[in-house]
Amino acid sequence: GQQVMQIPQYQHVQEGEDFTTYCNSSTTLSNIQWYKQRPGGHPVFLIQLVKSGEVKKQKRLTFQFGEAKKNSSLHITATQTTDVGTYFCAGPLLIYNQGGKLIFGQGTELSVKP
Amino acid sequence: DTAVSQTPKYLVTQMGNDKSIKCEQNLGHDTMYWYKQDSKKFLKIMFSYNNKELIINETVPNRFSPKSPDKAHLNLHINSLELGDSAVYFCASRLGHQNPEAFFGQGTRLTVV
Predict the structure, then answer these.
(1) Shortest Cα distance, chain B CAs vs residue A82, angstroms
(2) pLDDT greater than 80 at residue B60
(3) How many whole angstroms from its chain centre is CA B108?
């Protein structure tokens, strides 16, 4: 079945360092979404990428969608302690004539040392 | 006003008991989900409801049964709880699959002892 793989599983950085998490799908995706879950919290939607090769920025966060629409990355420049949490990518599995479901990657847990 | 609300937030119960988790969304969404998050943070979809009809039923044990009295509610009932059911359960909702954003509830941490 369709799988969404995410690496690394954990990343520990010093505050001010950059951070990147990578997401790969076994199938071509119509779009990809990114979510952030703070410790003890719930996943919160960050962004959706739709177009092949698309790049979007949110302040220090840069999101990319691969040309083949099978991979994506999230890069954080100059991490801050507020960036701590688990970052998930999610791709839709579309079933004909039914609602879709989101398949989540395993997540990358980011810790930032002040 | 909470968009997606789950109750209870914490649930501790003994093996063999039956329990329910409630979920309500006030966003007017037509699709609701239940996810299970294990200790490694992996989010696994359990059920999806669209316009009150179960459209995807993952290979979860039939001890788990979703119940949707109306479009704004999707409750999760669990029979004969087992130790392995301990996890955080998240309810989520979305406006069909055209709108990208899924809104998650605060989660219910279930501990089976």
Answers:
(1) 19
(2) yes
(3) 9
